[in-house]
Amino acid sequence: MKFDYRIRSSVVSLSLSWSKGKTPKIAGQKCATMNQNIAIKMISTAGLALAFSAGAVFAQQNLIVNGSFESGGAGVEHFPSWDAIGPADNNSDYGVAQSSADPDVAQQGNFYAYFHGNPTDSSQDCLGQTVNLTVGAQYTISFYLATDGTTLGSGAAMYVVIGTSFGIDYSQDVSLTSYLPNSSSALPYQKFTTTITATNSSEILSFHGFDATSAILLDNVSMTLVVPSPPQLSLKLAPTNMLLFTWTAPTNGYRLQANSSLTTNWVTLTNTPVTAGSSNHIFLPAPNRNMLYRLTLP
Q1: Residue 173: how many CB atoms within 10 A of its CB?
Q2: How many of the other CB atoms lie within 10 Å of CB of 182?
Q3: Overall pTM surpassing 0.70 (yes/no)
Q4: Strand order across the beta sheet in which 11-19 lies
Q5: At CA 232, angle to CA 231 and CA 233, rounded to 5?
Q6: What is the assigned CATH class of domain 11-59+228-296?
Q7: Worst-scoring range by mean pLDDT, 207-221, 223-237, 247-261?
Q8: Could you write out the three-class secondary structure of the chain?
Q9: pLDDT digits 0-9 by tens, 156-183
Q10: Can 11-59+228-296 and 75-225 be said to share one CATH topology?
Q11: For 75-225, which CATH class?
């Protein structure tokens, strides 16, 4: 398994070492002498991650490419890296613009997307991007919407959906936001955030808008995997020369792994944890050599 905490993995790890006939020390503290003396060194998730990977440990990858429209410059129906572009059937008017004077400014950076179409039918100017997902995983989606002028009585709207049809088909798509501005003046950027559970391995996040009297502005679109906080892993000596591993429950999907050194050759243990109260328990025979243990979330 390739270790990459920033995107997919949560890891809690501890190491064991022992020697017969000696009482080892850890940071000046003595461990109790038993049949085999065990020195337990707890390694924090941040410290362990830094041992494998330099940089921002908790940063999450944005699955949306060019979500702030900073790459490729401005242009009508010009959305670099966005693979789904569907103009309205008539009177389409949307694209990417560069910040000028307020309120025609980006929320982040220097560029933003605008929707200023005025279709006479029920069509909209549509923009989307395909994302590859893990079925059952949760993702946080966020974006900013604003207007650059009056929308009072104009019927302006922006519908945001995710699903397998590049449209607004609620048999295949999930509605995230219905933005219906109705103001006599420009509205500042408002952040919208929602969390979804993926039901397909490939879906399209799409924006469907029109605004005859001004323009709806879109910027800073992101979609990131939700990584739960790792559980606390602990170890105790048990009778008959056994080790008792415990970690907080419920934490579905975590696996206990072992290794004799800090390499990539981690072995997933097949022992099934038993849940007792708020903890998961696994008993293992005490090994006869130095060992490292960790919890991983694939």
Answers
A1: 19
A2: 14
A3: no
A4: 37-43, 11-19, 291-296, 255-259, 267-268
A5: 110
A6: mainly beta
A7: 247-261
A8: CCCCCCCCCCEEEEEEEEECCCCCEECCEECCCCCCEEEEEEECHHHHHHHHCCCCCCCCCCCCCCCCCCCCCCEECCCCCCCEEECCCCCCCEEEEECCCCCCCCCCCCEEEEECCCCCCCCCEEEEEEEECCCCCEEEEEEEEEECCCCCCCCCEEEEEEECCCCCCCCCEEEEEEECCCCCCCCCCEEEEEEEECCCCEEEEEEEEECCCCCEEEEEEEEEECCCCCCCEEEEEECCCEEEEEEECCCCCCEEEEECCCCCCCEECCCCCEEECCEEEEEEECCCCCEEEEEECC
A9: 999 999 999 998 898 999 999 999 999 9
A10: no
A11: mainly beta
pLDDT bin (cut points 50, 70, 90) of residue 251 is: low
The dihedral built from the CA positions of residue 105, 84, 206 and 195, taken in this order, carries a sign that is negative
Domain segments of the chain: what residues?
Answer: 11-59+228-296, 75-225
Q: Token digits for 191?
A: 């952040």
Sign of CA dihedral 18, 24, 26, 27: negative
Q: What's the pLDDT at 261?
A: 84
Place of tokens 């009482």: 23
